[in-house]
Amino acid sequence: MPGRQLRSHQAETLAVVQAIARGEACGVRDVLAAVTPGGGKSLLPVLAAQALIEAGLCERICWVVPRDSLRLQAEEAFADPGWRAALGHALSVRAAENAPDPCRGLAGYVTTYQGVSAAPDLHLAEFRRHRYLLVVDEVHHLPAVGANDNGAAPADDAAGWSAAIEPLLALASVRLLLSGTLERADGRRILGLPYRRAAGGREEVHLAAPGLAVIGYSRARALAECAVLPVSFGALDGEASWLGPEGETGERPHLGPHRLRAPAPNEATRPALFTALRTGFADALLRRAFEATRGLRAERRERLGIPPAEAARGLGKLLVVAPDQAQARRYLDTVRRWVPAFQAHRMALAVSEERGAHETLAAFRLMPEPSVLVTVAMAYEGLDAPEVAVVAALTHIRSRTWLEQMVARATRVDPNAGPYAAQRAVVFHPDDPLFARFRWRMEREQGTRATPPPPRHPRLPLPDWLDDELAEARERQAIVPLESNALALRLSTLRPGPDLAAGLAAARAPDQQGELLEAPSAAERRLRAKLGELVAGQAVEDMADGIAGAVSPMRGDGLYHAYNAVLKRATGGKARAGMTLAELEAAVAWLGRNRLRDHLNLLEGDRRFGWRARPRGEWRPPVGQPAIARGPRTAAGKARP
Questions:
Q1: What are the pLDDT digits (tens) for 537-565?
Q2: pLDDT at position 20
Q3: At what angle do helices 269-276 and 280-304 cross, to 10 degrees?
Q4: CB 213 within 8 A of CB 25
Q5: Is 611 within the bounds of a domain?
Q6: Angle (CA) 15 20 21, round 5°
Q7: Domain co-membership, 472 together with 338
Q8: Are residues 473 and 527 in the same domain?
Q9: Using CA atoms, how far apart are residues 236 and 282, in angstroms rounded to an integer?
Q10: What is the CATH classification number for the domain harbouring 401?
Q11: Which of residues 191, 217, 243 is at a domain's end?
Q12: Cα 630 vs. chain centroid, distance in angstroms?
């Protein structure tokens, strides 16, 4: 494959789907790819679709992703020109809305969990009409239907998504399940995966189940192949004080100061963290992450020979993960105070309540600026932004899978930043024992620790008031953060163990990605807008020439709407919103060769427009109710007797 080389898990996936396509896989219908975050899952659907569609085993692909911001990335995976040339494929998919014919003439479509749940019948009908390869991304978000709820109705959004996606799993010809982890934080089963009883009665995924092929790609393996970067952690200690919940006297006790760093979690761990993320400690950690990013960008400018004022790719970016949207806005304001006013546009916010959040995410991924992005959860999982080099982990969430995804935003190799050995990922975080436990697990998995694990401490039960605070579903303010400050910063780097040294020694610079082709959904939006501009332009020109007199608009329709109706009839009777990419291109080409005023005869018989050919300037009486005959009337307007 000229220019591109498959990683080991990608080559294994290709071999498996080719065996399925040839009928050599002994009834295998399910492929589970357990790939470490940042290891390159997005190419696997492309490989599977190419092999299965070419063999005729599947006709189309449906790729279901957790959130809307990932749909464009799925399109780009198929549109990447480097992989199109290396693999020799010409498949395209589109980011579909819940509208009929989601593929629009392409090889498949991308939708979201929420999209399937909002219109399950539409997707079911599509799967019944065609043989589909179904790709479920980050499948660990979906609990098995009926798990832990005794068959009752879904109790949360995730269970509702599972109930809508399960019938598609049953109808799909082949299923490709993607995940960076094989466990859920709540302990429930994962949708679509087989389970068995392990020692001690614990349930685990049955990786040897009949009909299931498993592709594994650990972080240690990814490091050996230089697919991800080693991580340097900056653990910042601090202390915090807060007011606790009201007692029997109605007073709030003053608690603290309590240190964040401790040998093991205790009752003060989470309240201290909650306070620290909303007071001075957060500003101190954010400042260290900001300065590290600024220093990295200056270093790369000098090494790559890029002038100070020039926007360029490959300099490194900062991702700030906040505990909630209010704090995200405060963090953004804080960072903007540290730069001159003319550089404020380089810092951006992407939260669900912010207008244009998806466009901001796309710019952060694909453009040199913004170089700093503040978010809560929109960008932590699946964000393919290799330029992220520094993460400020200002979040209270300590779920292992969540933190792995967050750290993985910085561990992608940036093809524009120089050789692999010159790149690094840096994560600044509070130095609390819960994050320390996560770090220990990560070190163990990539072969850096030979010491036994620290003693396990039982999880301390948290009071209801604190659980409500941390879940952000509270109805009252249980604690009042007072103040916090940073104390000491500990820096350490998670590097591979001795078993990985040989692999890393052979590191080389990755191939350049090149420019991406335009994603199908983006092309559709551009062509629909182009059609609107062309129709409006002809309408304005013809209004100036007096052509509007040939159309008698009714019910508020004007010449622009009449011309839209002409275009619709001239191009087959399909509205622009329902046209395929090829049909939109054909409509644009037709408008380039024709004037709509020459085809007004297509409106004959349409009472909305009342078209007829008549001389320019001819007067017509207004159309309305026939006049009622009236007798003579008095001067006052009354009928004479």
A1: 888 777 766 655 555 444 434 777 888 88
A2: 93
A3: 60
A4: yes
A5: no
A6: 95
A7: yes
A8: no
A9: 10
A10: 3.40.50.300
A11: 217
A12: 71
- How many folded domains does the chain comprise? 3
**Is pLDDT above 90 for 127?**
yes
Burial of 100 (0-12, 13-18, 19+ CB in 10 A): exposed
Furthest CA-CA distance within the chain: 116
| Pairing mode of beta strands 231-243, 254-259 | antiparallel
Q: Looking at the DSSP assignment, which residues form a beta bridge with residue 242?
A: 255, 481
Kindly report, residue by residue over 218-246, the tens digit of the pLDDT. 888 888 888 889 888 999 999 999 888 87
* CA-closest candidate to residue 392, choices 406, 412, 404, 378: 406
**Is 493 in the same domain as 546?**
no
**Does residue 613 fall inside a structural domain?**
no
Backbone angles phi, psi at 317, to 5 degrees: -135, 165
Q: What is the rounded average pLDDT for all residues in the chain?
A: 80
pLDDT tens digits, residue range 418-435? 899 889 899 999 999 999
pLDDT reading at 605 higher than 90: no
- Assign 225 to helix, strand or coil: coil
Instruction: Tell me the average pLDDT across 166-180.
Output: 94
Residues 252 and 401 in one domain: yes
- Regarding whether 329 and 287 lie in a shared domain, the answer is yes
Kindly state whether residues 212 and 237 are assigned to the same domain: no
Q: How confident is the model at residue 468 (pLDDT cuts 50, 70, 90)?
A: very low
**Tokens standing for 278?**
């909303």
Task: Measure the CA angle with vertex 454, ends 452 and 459; round to 5°.
Answer: 140
Distance (Å, rounded) from C-alpha 218 to C-alpha 180?
Answer: 9
Res. 35: pLDDT tops 80: yes
Q: How far apart are CA 385 and CA 361, in angstroms?
A: 9
Rg for the chain, CA atoms, rounded: 30
DSSP per residue over 18-76, as a string?
Answer: HHHHHT-STT--EEEEEE-TTS--TTHHHHHHHHHHHTTS-SEEEEEESSGGGHHHHHH
Cα torsion at 185, 189, 194, 198 (round to 10°)?
70
Amino acid type, 470 = L
At 267 the pLDDT is 87
DSSP state of 174: E
pLDDT at position 622 over 80: no
The answer to whether residues 571 and 590 touch, using CB atoms and an 8 Å cutoff, is: yes
Kind of pairing between the strands at 231-243 and 480-494? antiparallel
Pull the structure tokens for residue 509: 């610079």
Burial annotation 11-40 (CB, 10 A radius, 16+ → b, else e):
ebbbebbbebbeeebeebebbbbbbbbbbb
- For the record, the structure tokens of 385 come out as 């932004």
Residue at 56 is within a domain? yes
Q: Is 387 within the bounds of a domain?
A: yes
**Residue 67: C-alpha distances to residues 76, 100, 136, 600 (Å):** 16, 21, 12, 44
- Beta pairing partners, 388: 317
- The pTM of the full predicted model, rounded to 2 decimals, is 0.70
What distance in Å separates the CA atoms of residue 12 and residue 51, rounded to the nearest whole number?
A: 13
Compute the residue count for the chain.
641
Cα 571 to chain centroid distance, Å, stands at 35
Last residue of one domain, picked from the residues 217, 240, 273: 217
Domain assignment of residue 550, given as a range = 520-603
Residues 321 and 418 in one domain: yes
In 3D space, the residue among 516, 526, 416, 413 whose CA is nearest the CA of residue 76 turns out to be 516
Residue 347's pLDDT is what? 93
Instruction: Please check whether residues 208 and 242 belong to one and the same domain.
Output: no
**More confidently predicted of 479 and 213:** 213
pLDDT of 405? 85
φ and ψ at residue 202, rounded to 5 degrees: -75, 140
Per-residue tokens: 594: 């024709």
Q: Indicate the residue type of 395.
A: T
Query: Three-class SS of residue 491?
Result: strand
